[in-house]
């Protein structure tokens, strides 16, 4: 399980490095407010395309939303959308540590840690000892 999570983190990190915004565009992370419904997903996709944007990746791990490239002047179009939880500039290709920090924060939220993904988890060993 740990190796699968580590593999997924590596794939996410590697793919983010190759998705730089085109000239005149800026990369953003758009997170949808919960509960996420099919209607919210479709409305968000339509609004992103209407604003001249491109969906680079649909995010379903930890939060639901999109990694998008938008014309810089179009981001304000999403300020008052009721289906949006937050919008922030995606700086992962410029500062790779931001992606790792974001992944670490999501792992902590899920009661995991990056150390437990890459190393033996001492709590798992303890719980195995208690079982037998």
UniProtKB/TrEMBL annotation:
Question: Which residues belong to the signal peptide in this entry?
Answer: 1-20
InterPro entries per the record?
Answer: PBI_I9 (IPR052471), S8pro/Inhibitor_I9_sf (IPR037045)
Asked whether the keyword Phosphoprotein is assigned, the reply is no
Task: Provide the residue span(s) of the region labelled Disordered.
Answer: 111-132
Q: Which UniProt keywords apply?
A: Signal
Which family is this sequence assigned to? Answer: Belongs to the protease inhibitor I9 family.
Give the species this sequence originates from.
Answer: Mucor plumbeus
* A GO biological process held by the record: vacuole fusion, non-autophagic
Membrane-traversing stretches: none
Q: What is this protein called?
A: Inhibitor I9 domain-containing protein
Gene Ontology molecular function terms on file: endopeptidase inhibitor activity
């Amino acid at each position: 399980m740990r190796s699968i999570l580590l593999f997924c983190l590596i794939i996410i990190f590697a793919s983010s490095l190759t998705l730089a915004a085109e000239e005149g565009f800026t990369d953003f992370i758009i997170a949808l407010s919960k509960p996420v419904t099919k209607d919210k997903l479709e409305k968000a996709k339509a609004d992103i395309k209407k604003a001249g944007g491109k969906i680079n990746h649909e995010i379903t791990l930890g939060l639901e939303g999109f990694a998008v490239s938008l014309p810089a002047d179009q981001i304000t179009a999403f300020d008052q959308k009721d289906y949006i939880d937050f919008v922030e500039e995606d700086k992962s290709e410029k500062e790779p540590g931001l992606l790792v920090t974001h992944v670490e924060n999501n792992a902590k939220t899920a009661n995991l840690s990056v150390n437990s993904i890459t190393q033996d988890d001492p709590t798992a060993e303890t719980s195995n000892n208690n079982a037998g």
